[in-house]
Design a protein that fits this description.
One of its GO terms (molecular function) is homoserine kinase activity. Belongs to the GHMP kinase family. Homoserine kinase subfamily. Keywords: Amino-acid biosynthesis, ATP-binding, Cytoplasm, Kinase, Nucleotide-binding, Threonine biosynthesis, Transferase. The chain is of the alpha+beta class. It folds into 2 domains: about 160 residues, 2-Layer Sandwich (Ribosomal Protein S5, domain 2), CATH 3.30.230.10; about 130 residues, Alpha-Beta Plaits, CATH 3.30.70.890. Helices cover about 30% and strands about 25% of the residues. The chain contains 9 helices and 11 strands. The strands form 2 sheets. Strands 1, 2, 3, 4, 5, 6 and 11 form a 7-stranded mixed β-sheet that branches. Strands 8-9-7-10 form a 4-stranded antiparallel β-sheet, with helices on one face. Helix 1 crosses helix 2, helix 2 runs antiparallel to helix 3 and helix 8 runs antiparallel to helix 9.
Length: about 325
Amino acid sequence: MSSSTMGLTLSVRVPATSANLGPGFDCLGLALELYNSFTIAMDRPFAIHVTGESADSLPKTADNVVMQSLRNALAAAGVALDDLPSFALHLDNQIPVSSGLGSSASAIVGGLVLANGLLTRFAPDRVLTRERLLSLATAMEGHPDNVAPALFGGGVLAFHDRAGLRTTAVPIPDQLRFVAATPDFALSTEVARRVLPDSYRRADAIENVAQCARLMLALAKPDLDLLRGGIVDTFHEPYRKRLVPGADEVERAAVAAGAYAVTLSGAGPTLLAWCKPEVATAVADEMTLAWRNAGIPCRALVLRTVYGETLPRWDMEENNPISVNEV
């Protein structure tokens, strides 16, 4: 081990994400100010230490998604993990697992960005482009609507054309707040995908196109009152909400408290209320109460959209805010 890595840490902080945003199934998403943090401590025997959400249940072996993602990125760059100095990994998770807030996307993006940080130091001619990182993340996740905003921040539209997979920023007005109300039960994306139909009626497809255009206009103008009446979706929400007990009552409570609209966050079960800042706390309280009235504990957070590309940061261990002493 070279003394140049002694005491060094490499860290990345990846935001939570809400995908689909109603009618933007598998193509729209935004980044929210709730984070998972991943830290590599160089010159340590390999180990994984997990704190925060699901710390007791997440794997602490090479099968961990962060490590899988890190290895995939190194392989894409033609670099073997065994050719790099040894390290230990600390995962501090604040994003609840299987909640519809992009915990798996966070792990995938975290591993990819950590790998790129390692490449920057140990194989700078092999560093991967942001487009390549997005392609790798999408291949692992299966769709880009979570991984794109986790990588790039803000609101993101992902689409394919003759040039391949591309993204463009979606404007999110500064005066918009999001209440993420998460009930105390998990809902895996795999289960939530199985309930979706294989095909849709033409009328449903037309309605979704119209609703997606409406959403984009409301955000771009901005004219958030266009969101009132509900952000209608016909592709996934009618099927997935059946897996979320109390969803309709919680949505009604949010709108009655002043929310513009409510969307299912990703595959659920989190519901995302779109609000003015001045009503966001009341909306959070009413959503929590509605779920508790259904016998389901709930945690509701008032969140902003976060911006900026997710990048790795090298530092000295004593300057890193995340302790790695236990790994």
